Amino acid sequence: MKRIVVTLLLAVVALSASAQKTISYEGADEIVRLWDNKTAKHTNHETRDEAWKKKNSIWRTSSCELYIFKAAPEKNTGIAIAMYPGGSYRNLNLGISFAQWYASQGITVAIVKYRLPNGGHHAATLEDAEGAVRHLRTRSDLGIDPAKVGVLGSSAGGHLASWVSNSMPDGEKPAFAILHYAWINLHKSSTSAQDEALKYILGKSYTEQDAINLSTHYMVSATTSPTMLFLCYDDALVPSTDGVEYYEALVRHGVKASMHIFPFGGHSVKKHIAEYQPAVIEWLKYLGLMPNK
User: Fold this and answer.
1) Cβ(90)–Cβ(200) below 8 Å
2) Which domain holds residue 83?
3) What is the pTM of this model?
4) Whole-angstrom Cα distance, residue 24 to residue 31?
5) Which distant-in-sequence residues (6+ apart) come within 8 Å of 103 by Cβ?
6) For residue 7, is it within any domain?
7) Residue 19: inside a domain
8) What is the mean pLDDT of each run of 10 residues along the chain (293 residues)?
9) Domain at 144, CATH number
């Protein structure tokens, strides 16, 4: 009997030692854990530990967390943004500086640590992205107006933001979307980076129809969220034509849209931040979400 008890204890210790590890970004004003693979409706089937690579890059995500940067109290506009990091659907590159700037303008931001699709399990990714929007709408304690919750994403995160702008039911879609050099057309992959990203979101054995189904310019309807796009002509990772296709779809369906194409800057808008910031503020004023003063 004694030998059996010892064996059971050793088994418990072994299970504890092998438990999957998750991580958080500790620089936010608040961290909200929505769920993980055990508690969410969908799973991305990731079994490895989450890990940091470099300063603000998270890999192998298996849980969804929101890193909330609160709006400056004296400027709080009631606007909130669910921000989806890019990283080719392979990892998440947190856009901390953008979150901090928006917060300084009276806009609450939640950087979403979403579960990566891990080779085709993108239902979990979309669940996290939509869940972030729904959570922010419940946060009246942060001064958030449920009618003023939008989304923002960069690169693969831009694809996710555009996807959420179309996937949520009418009446629940985000109030607006801001897309940074977004990957839109999965059907017409034109760079090696896009080819690699397709395997992460669709799996290695994806079909042409799979890629068409997740190309968000085909999803646009009259109820798609009003959208602002930022692109660079010389982007070698995601061609600016991706954003143009999305813009054209928005215009065809009568959706409010604005597009800025910079002549240089590559896969980033940081070289044009002096133009970017006032353009965003004017766009939010145009939509009636910020005071026009």
Assistant:
1) yes
2) 48-286
3) 0.92
4) 8
5) 69, 70, 71, 72, 109
6) no
7) no
8) 35 46 94 98 97 92 98 96 97 96 98 97 98 98 98 98 98 98 88 87 94 97 98 94 96 98 96 97 97 81
9) 3.40.50.1820
